Input
Amino acid sequence: AAAAEEEEEEEEDSEDDNYVSDSSDDEDKRPPEQFDLSSSTTIMLPPRNYTLVHEDGRLHKRDNFTPMSFGMQRIHNNAAPEPVWVQTQNARWMQGTTEVVVIAHTVPRDQMRAALLDVQLAPRQVHVASRATGQVFLHGELEERIDPRTSTWLTDGTHVTMTLVKANLQIYDAGKKGTAADTHWHRLLTTDQYVERGMVDADYSELPAEHRHKAKMSELERKEKKRQEELANECALCGKDVRFFCDCRSGDKDYEKPLPEGWKDPRLGFCDPIFDGVNYDAGKSAQLQPKPAPQPRPYAGGR
Output
């Protein structure tokens, strides 16, 4: 009887082992998006319908590029960056400071003759179609305005290439700042998906000299302002910033640690360039006393 019970226990253990192994196999077969990614630091990007390629359509190494944090983007002011083409369903395009080069890669090889194509360029529209059949190969509204008078197109029998000259009117508008004054296009057509910011570098190397000089001076002023703030808040003991990293006097109850830039109390003893020279009225104790009740207005005559 004891031997029979031991055999039954061994069979139950083997069944339990099989059950566990089956469940583990099921877990391994689950799609990867169902795994717990709470501890992962990878940036999850939405699905995209474009790829980063070379001019001939080969996949570019930056297609497997993770954008920088906070939506930052590399900017080239002195020299043009490495060319990166964005390929969508109907077009392959690349941009510089003043031009956007578009290749209509969906045009059949037997249609790549100037006499057989109907190409129209408008300030906010591009259209490529067949003259004979009317088949449309590329059509849509552009992301920004172009100059159709100076824009050109050509075909060499293997590609249909359009060179669109950017209007860049936003850089001459003093009322526009930040992204509104940006000459970098984040998509070709308004129906395309936005290219993740940071995957393609911005090229400002061909901007007018006065604009590049202004941008350079602004950058130097920003760096000098940051340097002055760091010097004004440098700890004399450890040399670190007393607002963030210094713990030399953390145990001193009589010492108040300055707060970061933007705090409006100048009595903490640090330099804040935003509120430099501004005196804030702390008020008086009399302001805390209850105000007397309002007296009735005197009779002014009449009914």
